[in-house]
Write a structure and sequence with these properties.
By secondary structure, the protein is an alpha+beta fold. The protein has a single domain, classed as Ribosomal Protein S5, domain 2. Helix content is about 45%, strand content about 15%. The protein has helices at about 10-20, 25-35, 65-70, 90-105, 130-155; strands at about 35-40, 45-50, 75-80, 115-120. A 4-stranded mixed beta sheet has the order 1-2-4-3, sandwiched between helices. A hairpin with a 2-residue loop joins strand 1 (about 35-40) and strand 2. Helix 4 (about 90-105) crosses helix 5 (about 130-155).
Length: about 160
């Protein structure tokens, strides 16, 4: 009997994009509650470091030496919001498309285990795409710098 073939085949690129997206309402709420808020001309962004227990399939984590190495493998996730205040559905979708593309191009700047939520402003509609890219890159670099002292302090306690 031949092996059943899958109906749909997923590309690895799509799977990695989904893993880097912030999806659950509870995750958004945690970032708003525990994270920090910063503003740029085209957006406001919120960010919070991820915890090891947020990894998929890791419910009970031993308090041993495996925790720091697991934390570095969590990766970053980015969420995007576009409320009705930004315009009608066509305008909101255009804002989201432009923001998603800028995030894709700047995602490599997020090397820390962090969740980031971007709140674009309506000015994203008229802004040059290079300006959007620049602001997203600035946001990601600022997040990295804000979390860097925390990461350095955590690694210093183990010596």
């Amino acid at each position: 009997m031949p092996a059943p073939t899958p109906v749909r085949v997923r590309k690895p690129v799509a799977a990695s994009r989904q893993e880097s997206r912030l999806r659950k309402h509870a995750d958004y709420q945690r970032v708003y509650r525990e994270g920090k808020r910063q503003s740029l001309p085209l957006m406001t962004y919120f960010f919070a470091a991820r915890k090891p227990q947020e990894a998929a399939g890791v419910d009970s984590l031993p308090s041993g030496a495996d925790s720091p190495s697991l934390e570095t493998h969590l990766g970053s996730r980015v969420g995007l919001t576009a409320g009705r205040v930004l315009g009608n559905a066509v305008e909101r979708n255009r804002i989201k498309r432009r923001m998603r593309q800028a995030v894709r191009q700047a995602q490599t700047e997020l090397t820390a285990s962090v969740d980031v939520i971007l709140h674009p402003r309506r000015t994203v509609l008229e802004a040059e795409f290079s300006q959007i890219e620049r602001d997203v890159l600035r946001a990601f670099r600022a997040v990295h710098l804000a979390l860097k002292p925390r990461c350095d302090a955590d690694s210093g306690h183990g010596n």
